[in-house]
């Protein structure tokens, strides 16, 4: 699927709270495929579930990256309550229980996550010559104007509903 590239400068509104959740795995022992491959394959069904049930789950969007040893999924959520509710959901709990049963403290594969709760007015974005990506894909974007043409102006809340 070819994504439309927006040639010019864009920003997102910073008028809503956002939760950014990073989750991933690291292959510590490359030859221990039987240990790390099940962890790797557990993620696609959850990602599919999120995209198919966005509104019901409070999930906004995601981006993913796969490196030589480490993967990361960056996801955007409406609230920490939505994220925590998903963590207690059937697909995630099943994957978590399977990981703990089969892998546990085995050093062949590691997993991690980080959660950032960001209040409205306390983040800024900038996109130029990009398809909608990251937060712009999650909540939409708008053309930049003179009153928001620097990161300082955007961070100082000149165009947001709440000043920092």
Structure in words:
With 164 residues, the protein is an alpha+beta fold. The protein folds into 2 domains: 6-14 and 120-155, no CATH class; 18-118, Alpha-Beta Plaits (2-Layer Sandwich). The chain contains 6 helices and 7 strands; from the N terminus they run E-E-H-H-E-E-H-H-E-E-H-E-H. The strands form 2 sheets. The chain has a 4-stranded antiparallel β-sheet with strand order 3-4-2-5. It has a 3-stranded antiparallel β-sheet with strand order 6-1-7, with no helix packed on it. Strand 3 and strand 4 form a beta hairpin. Helix 1 (33-52) runs antiparallel to helix 4. The radius of gyration is 18 Å and the shape is elongated. The N and C termini lie far apart (39 Å). InterPro entries: Monooxy_af470 (IPR025444). It comes from Ornithinibacillus xuwenensis. This is DUF4188 domain-containing protein.
Largest sheet properties: 4 strands, antiparallel
In quaternary terms, these chains amount to single chain
CATH-derived architecture of the largest domain = 2-Layer Sandwich
Return the CATH class of the largest domain.
Alpha Beta
Which bin fits the share of residues in helices? 25-40%
């Amino acid at each position: 699927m070819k994504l439309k590239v927006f040639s010019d400068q864009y920003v997102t509104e910073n008028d809503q709270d956002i939760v950014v959740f990073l989750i991933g795995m690291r292959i510590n022992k490359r030859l221990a495929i039987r240990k790390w491959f099940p962890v790797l394959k557990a993620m696609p069904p959850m990602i599919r579930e999120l995209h198919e049930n966005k509104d019901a789950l409070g999930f906004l969007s995601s981006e993913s990256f796969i490196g030589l040893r480490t993967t990361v999924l960056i996801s955007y959520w409406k609230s920490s309550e939505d994220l925590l509710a998903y963590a207690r959901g059937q697909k995630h709990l099943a994957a978590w229980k399977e990981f703990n049963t089969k892998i546990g403290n085995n050093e062949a594969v590691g997993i991690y996550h980080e959660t950032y709760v960001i209040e409205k007015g306390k983040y800024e974005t900038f996109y130029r010559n990009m398809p909608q990506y990251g937060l712009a894909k999650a909540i939409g974007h708008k053309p930049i104007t003179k009153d928001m043409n620097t990161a300082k102006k955007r961070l100082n809340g000149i165009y947001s509903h709440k000043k920092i």
